[in-house]
Design brief:
Strand content: 5-15%
Helix content: 40-55%
Number of helices: 14
Radius of gyration: 25 Å
Number of strands: 9
Structural class: alpha+beta
Distance between the termini: 37 Å
Length: 328
């Protein structure tokens, strides 16, 4: 089931931020930045995830924007829920590759740097040998580009190039320390989780209480966290997310395409204690007869009876065949 996916802190915070942006669409300035008051509110809410002065929020925001999970509509940010769900259900390796691509925009060869630091197995890595290795990589890349352009004379002078790993530190994937006169680096918990996702913490369910609150541990599959955010108000973010089901949140869920029985079954299946009777009764009252009768736009096809079996067995068409009304 979807609850068995590994949910590490990187994807936990991305899924939670997507929910926050969906529930509180921020308004942007002319420079395409979140207004200061709302940015401060956002930083306060995610205080356990990132420090206000860090680049972690910008990395998350740019990642969501780069891959079409959020977009600008007018002067506000809007979430493309279908794209978010698609990303959250990708294979872990594919998710990680997309995150590396976002880091590359801040630090060339970011993935190589992280794997090099990771090879120290948690020990601090001095900056000098790491910088020497990085410099050789950059020179190799420079030579490759000049080779393809047939420009064989190096434009570089005798001086060594100066590089910095501060971008990866600011993005929260590297930690920096000082030993004597030298800087040292190691992977942060976030960087470690990105390269080597932790073992499944065993959380496949959330806790739905009779007072309409939901407690979802960070080890829960991120796609479950995001779906919770479609039906309940996100009110807290720490090692566990806290949500509250309200009449307004249920009304919004129905507008987003949830159906009465689908919503009740979701809560029933993934709640640790099932669906409390009082919660189910209230939800049914709030949703009324929604979905009992619906109009749909459909495409009706007539297929000769000799071709029905082959037509219905075509893999490309199978997801679109809803119902067969009669023999050919």
């Amino acid at each position: 089931g979807i609850g068995s996916c590994v949910g590490d802190m990187v994807y936990f915070s991305l899924a939670t931020l997507a929910t926050w942006l969906d529930q509180h669409p921020p308004k942007l300035t002319q420079r395409q930045e979140v207004f200061k008051a709302q940015k401060e509110e956002l930083d306060k809410f995610f205080g356990q995830i990132w420090a206000p002065e860090s680049e972690v929020f910008n990395l998350h925001y740019d990642f969501l924007m780069m891959h079409g999970m959020i977009e600008l509509r007018g002067d506000r940010v809007a979430v493309n829920r279908e794209v978010v769900e698609e990303w959250l259900t990708l294979e872990p390796e594919d998710q990680r590759d997309l995150m590396f691509r976002a880091l590359e925009k801040r630090q060339a060869m970011a993935e190589w740097v992280l794997w090099a630091v990771n090879s120290a197995k948690g020990e601090w890595v001095p900056e000098a040998p790491l910088m020497a290795l990085y410099r050789r990589w950059k020179r190799g890349e420079d030579w490759r580009e000049r080779f393809h352009r047939k420009q064989y004379a190096s434009p570089r002078g005798a001086e060594r190039e100066a590089y910095s790993f501060s971008a990866l530190v600011n993005c929260g994937v590297l930690e920096m320390g000082v030993w004597g006169q030298q800087k040292v680096y190691r992977l942060s918990p976030r960087g470690t989780a990105l390269l080597d996702p932790p073992e499944d913490e065993g959380f496949s369910k959330f806790y739905l209480t009779p007072n309409y609150e939901i407690i979802a541990p960070a080890g829960l599959a991120p796609v479950l966290l995001f779906r919770l955010g479609e039906i309940a108000e996100l009110i807290g973010c720490d090692r566990a997310n806290t949500y509250r089901i309200t009449e307004i949140s249920i009304e919004q869920a129905l507008k987003k395409g949830w159906r009465r029985e689908e919503l009740l079954e979701f809560l029933r299946e993934y709640s640790q204690i099932g669906l409390p009777q009082n919660v189910e009764s209230t939800l049914r009252a709030w949703m009324g007869g929604d979905g009992d009768v619906e109009f749909h736009e459909i495409t009706a096809l007539t297929v000769h009876r000799a071709h029905i079996k082959r037509f219905e067995s075509m893999r490309a068409l199978r997801p679109f065949i809803v119902h067969r009304f009669g023999p050919g």
